[in-house]
Known about the structure:
This protein is an all-alpha fold. The protein has a domain of 108 residues. 80% of the residues lie in helices and 0% in strands. It is built from six helices and no strands. Helix 2 packs across helix 3, helix 3 runs antiparallel to helix 4 and helix 3 runs antiparallel to helix 5. The radius of gyration is 36 Å and the shape is elongated.
Amino acid sequence: MLKSKYCFIFLVVLFFSCEENREDKFEAKKDTPKALQNSDELDVSSFKSRKGTNLVSELYQELMEKNPELRKLEDSRNEFNEGHQIYINRFDEYDSKSQEYYRDANSYVKTINDSILRKKIEHFLTHNEEKYKHIISKHTGLQDDLSKLSSTIEDRLIVLKVLLTLEQIEKYQKDNLPETREPSSLIRKADSVSRKVENLTPKY
């Protein structure tokens, strides 16, 4: 009777221990970012092929959806990029008209038969083009500054994405490390199969 009582207590403890382990595993899976979940942990409707995807970008996107500061940062970055591109397009359109004019004017002047007059006008055009380049030099300098700043932002954003998502992958590695029981069992099976093969192999 006493033995049955201890056996019952042992089974109860074992049951609740298993339930606790299952709860811990469930919590770990629940906290795992979607990008790191296995296909069988995702809804069929949300499953998509991972071919051609960038895991760092996916993890960062999930972080951004949950973090208002990261969303504000992305909005500011997009606002800067959009403004930068608008300015470049506007200036390039402005500058292209002048470049086209000087190109066509120089080509046109070459048709002047009088060599002295032709050289005089060519010199005049060259001087005028240099004056124009001086006028836009402030803009070209600003463009260089903006390009450098844009490059710096992108570099630092890569660092931010990597360091933030590195925390996620480290947590995933810790929470989802497979147990060694399965490969250990397979090794034992392999040893057994190997011995059977050896025993059944005729002596030579």
